[in-house]
Write a structure and sequence with these properties.
Serine Threonine Protein Phosphatase 5, Tetratricopeptide repeat; Spore Coat Polysaccharide Biosynthesis Protein SpsA, Chain A; 11 strands; 3 domains
Length: about 350
């Protein structure tokens, strides 16, 4: 098996050595430099990485990645698109070389996109940027994806970790995302992404309109993403906040996110039975999906916290202590949760006596 690791880069000198060290077990390493003014090209070539320089104007991520892909040798079996701020976890090649049960053209793997303050993984989901040398092309000017007429997927134990450079501007993403939606208005994924971008930029009317448009698209059939649009609508359309949260929980009842946001809503309204019911429904969901749509809040201390507070208000002191203890265990440095737990403990003990 021959493996190539490839990427696009511009002014990434701080990441070149780390990228190389994580990927050096590949048969071929390639960087398409798109106009660096720092030492990216020099450092990469000194390490033995193949580098070509092409300035792409007007800029599009899909064009850049397709050019990089075209430079790869013809005898490569698997290509790994590894961004400069990502690393392959040690042992990756062994996992990729284990026999698949079928003619797999797109191996899937665990991707860690973000990290908590204590260094533990934050958002994790199934990565999809390993592919066969032929039959795949990149599509969309931003939030680009690999497209193929047909593909066969299978999971392996390989992992990729992301360590983002927060100093880099994302300003170019917005107009490129608008362009992506103009080019393919029926694409549900980019409609959802554009609506989110409007929301992040405090353009709530535009966000509301685009989220509603997303829900109307024939291709918008993935329930977790549809529920996510509804949850965002609850923040853009405050007069109908409860309506959208109830719709989200009905749309995708086997995901925690909507239940936790419902618990928060009922907590704010001091509707304690409804808050307790929503929080415990969230906690009944034990398996965390490897999907980008997962909200880390729903898998942190919050559902136990809402369950504890509402249980206490309802006079369920032992349940309050149980959930309070779990919340404090998950967020062990949170002073409020620790003090709440002491309070729950006192009330539970008095209730026994």
């Amino acid at each position: 098996m021959k493996v190539a690791v490839y990427t696009i880069a511009k002014n990434e000198e701080q990441f070149v050595k780390r990228w190389y060290e994580s990927a050096k077990d590949a048969d071929y390493l390639f960087i398409l430099d798109t106009g660096s003014t720092d030492n990216t090209v020099k450092l990469a070539r000194e390490l033995g990485i193949d580098v070509e320089v092409e300035v792409i104007s007007p800029w599009r991520f899909d064009v850049a990645r397709n050019i990089a892909l075209d430079y790869l040798p013809h005898d490569i079996d698997y290509c790994i698109a590894l961004d400069m701020d990502e690393v392959l976890v040690k042992g990756w090649r062994t996992h990729l070389e284990k026999p698949f049960s079928n003619n797999t053209t797109r191996p899937r793997y665990k991707y860690t996109w973000s990290w908590k303050e204590d260094g533990s993984p934050g958002l994790e989901y199934g990565g999809d940027k390993i592919h066969s040398r032929y039959g795949f092309r990149w599509k969309h000017p931003v939030h680009e994806v690999l497209s193929a007429q047909s593909e066969t997927q299978e999971w392996c134990d390989l992992e990729i970790h992301h360590f983002p450079d927060h100093t880099k501007s994302r300003g170019q993403y917005f107009p490129l995302l608008q362009l992506a939606v103009q080019e393919d208005p029926d694409d549900d994924r980019n409609a959802h992404y554009l609506a989110r971008e409007y929301y992040f930029n405090n353009m709530y009317k535009e966000a509301k309109d685009e989220f509603i448009r997303h829900l109307s698209l024939p291709r918008a059939v993935w329930k977790p993403e549809r529920a996510a649009s509804m949850r965002y609508l609850s923040k853009c359309d405050l007069q109908n906040r409860l309506y959208w949260l109830l719709r989200a929980s009905k749309e995708c009842p086997d995901r925690r996110e909507a239940w936790v946001e419902l618990a928060k809503y009922y907590y704010e309204k001091e509707k304690w039975q409804e808050c307790f019911n929503a929080a415990t429904k969230a906690l009944d969901i034990k398996e965390k999906p490897l999907e980008y749509i997962c909200d880390e809040v729903a898998w942190g201390f919050s559902p136990h916290d809402y369950a504890a507070i509402s249980a206490y208000r309802l006079g369920f002191y032992h349940e309050a202590y149980f959930h309070g203890a779990n919340a404090a265990r998950i967020a062990h440095q949170d002073e409020r949760l620790r003090k709440n737990l002491e309070f729950y403990s006192e009330r539970a003990e008095k209730n026994v006596s």
